[in-house]
Amino acid sequence: MKNKKQYSMLVLLLGLIITGGCATISTEKKSELEASASRQITCLKGEDCDTKWELAVAWVSNNSAWKVQTQTDNLIQTFGPSTQNSLASAYTVNKIPLGKGKYEITFKSSCANFMGCIPKAKALKAMFN
Fold this sequence. Notes:
Layout: H1 2-20, H2 27-38, E1 41-44, H3 47-63, E2 68-71, E3 75-78, E4 90-99, E5 102-110, H4 121-128
Antiparallel strand pairs: 1-5, 2-3, 3-4, 4-5
């Protein structure tokens, strides 16, 4: 009898997990996510770029499951997954010169799971922005 109860609880739990994975977000929230993820981050040489770069370094340090592998004035890169099927994303952030003292800060994420990363790349970029 005890095994039957455990089995029932397991089936219920799996059902909740599966249906929870199918949850959708509202159209409004999806639009906000899209807008934030597609926003370009630019800065001007000096205090503006220094501040935004410091914020980028802090964000990666606080939000990465992986240690920072490389950090320079123009690149932040974390180590990546050491095992297959990892859902945790690795990050690469670049500060790219656009000319005339203007820079763009770009953000990329990836993981080693064929099903995708958690959170998804677009959500991470929106959070980073």
